[in-house]
Amino acid sequence: MKAWVHHRYGTPDELRLADVPVPTPREDEVLVRVAAVSLNGSDSEALRGYPGYARLGGLRKPRRPILGSDLAGRVEAVGGKVTRFAVGDPVFGDNLSRLGGLGEVASAQDRSLARIPEGLGFREAAALPQGAVIALQGIRDAARVAPGQAVLVSGAGGSAGSFAVQLAKLHGADVTAVDRAAKAAFLRDLGADAVVDFEREDFTRGGKRYDVIFDVFVRRSLSAYLRALRPGGILLFVGGPVRRMLWLLLAGAVLRPFTRKRIRLLIVRARLDDLREVAELTLAGRIRPAIGHVFPFDEAPEAFRLLVDGRALGKVVIDGTRTPSGRSDAAD
Ligand SMILES: NC(=O)c1ccc[n+]([C@@H]2O[C@H](COP(=O)([O-])OP(=O)(O)OC[C@H]3O[C@@H](n4cnc5c(N)ncnc54)[C@H](OP(=O)(O)O)[C@@H]3O)[C@@H](O)[C@H]2O)c1
After folding, report:
1. Side by side, which strands form the sheet with 150-154?
2. Are 78 and 137 contained in the same domain?
3. Which of 44, 214, 238, 246 to mutate to test the pocket of ligand 1 (most atoms within 8 A of CB)?
4. Which region holds residue 68: left if phi is over 0, alpha if psi is between -120 and 50, else beta?
5. Taking each helix axis from N to C terminus, what angle separates 41-48 and 300-308, rounded to the nearest 10 degrees?
6. Is the CB of 244 under 6 A from ligand 1?
């Protein structure tokens, strides 16, 4: 089968289209013929090998050379212990532990996958898993956003952020979205009440204070975050340079009795109920995967370039289906 592989950390130029063996599913795995895969910040981090956690299991070179964790497709074969799926079932999920979505066929853990509900296309299904579940677990569970609260989402124009803006609105919050100026109209369209261009304005110095700051990638100092939080407020983050994350957690915990402000790393839990919930919310029209770009399989490096260069709007989807000519057809 064809797959995009990278054997060194670096830029999208490291990606090569190669012929590789079709994976053999282990007992608890499902072989999925990939119809669509969406990219997340975690994919570009795994390509670059930065921050440090992106090299877990592969310090010098990538342990899993085929990227792509958010995938959707049809079951091609199942391992001996898999009872939930049969050949031909449409499935989707975040295959973060195995990756492989940038191959024509990927092996995924049974417990990472759910059946795609009727009415949801492959592209939409692929756009949901990682970003929407991070946002759901952050906004609903960790921050428990309530009506009337002031919520700031930093990195709002990307994968998790575009869902966090919509979910915070759904919970009745007043939402400020931080990202590049070029994404302002896109962010307002997602429901943001206010938009901050991070290249021109520092939201921690704007005077406004927030009950919840949801930052997909921490870049600011502890004092800056604390300044921007209201008493009783919470900073939730999901990624960032390792030393900065550790410092924020440690110093935040020590100072908490004095500041009355919480700082928390959101570690995403693989819960299929949450995956099903974001799919239901999508089908009900309450949120939408903001798919800004769709690329054919053969142009996967271009999709990565968009992400790495800071030109991506919301979700970037790669259509996994290939025709003999090498171009791709829409799967849905
Ligand atoms: N904790 C966990 O369990 C877990 C699990 C999975 C993933 N993650 C982490 O989640 C993080 C990525 O989230 P994602 O997939 O949503 O990333 P993403 O799609 O790359 O989105 C990041 C967004 O932030 C914007 N941005 C860049 N610089 C900014 C700045 N200074 N201020 C505000 N926004 C800025 C980006 O704009 P441009 O693209 O235009 O630069 C982009 O729109 C990664 O760090 C990943 O490791 C954590």
Report:
1. 194-197, 174-179, 150-154, 210-215, 229-237, 262-265
2. no
3. 238
4. left
5. 100
6. no
Helix, strand or coil for residue 165? Answer: helix
Determine the Cα–Cα distance for residues 243 and 227; give it in Å rounded to an integer.
Answer: 21
Same domain, yes or no: 148 and 260: yes
Q: Is the pTM of this model over 0.85?
A: yes
The CATH number covering residue 153 comes to 3.40.50.720
The string of pLDDT tens digits covering residues 248-294 is: 999 999 999 999 999 999 999 989 999 999 999 999 999 999 999 99
Task: Answer whether 69 contacts ligand 1 (Cβ < 6 A).
Answer: no
Q: What is the b/e burial string over 233-258, where b = at least 16 CB atoms within 10 angstroms of the residue's CB?
A: bbbbbbbbeeebbeebeeebeeeeee
236 SS3 class: strand
Residue 216 CB–ligand 1 contact under 6 Å: yes
Number of helical (H) and strand (E) elements in the chain, helices listed first:
9, 15
Q: How many domains does the structure of the chain reveal?
A: 2
Say which DSSP state 71 is in: E
Residue whose CA is closest, atom 24 of ligand 1?
155
Residue 157 and residue 122 in one domain: no
* Enclosing domain of residue 112: 2-128+289-319
The β-bridge partners of 291 are 315
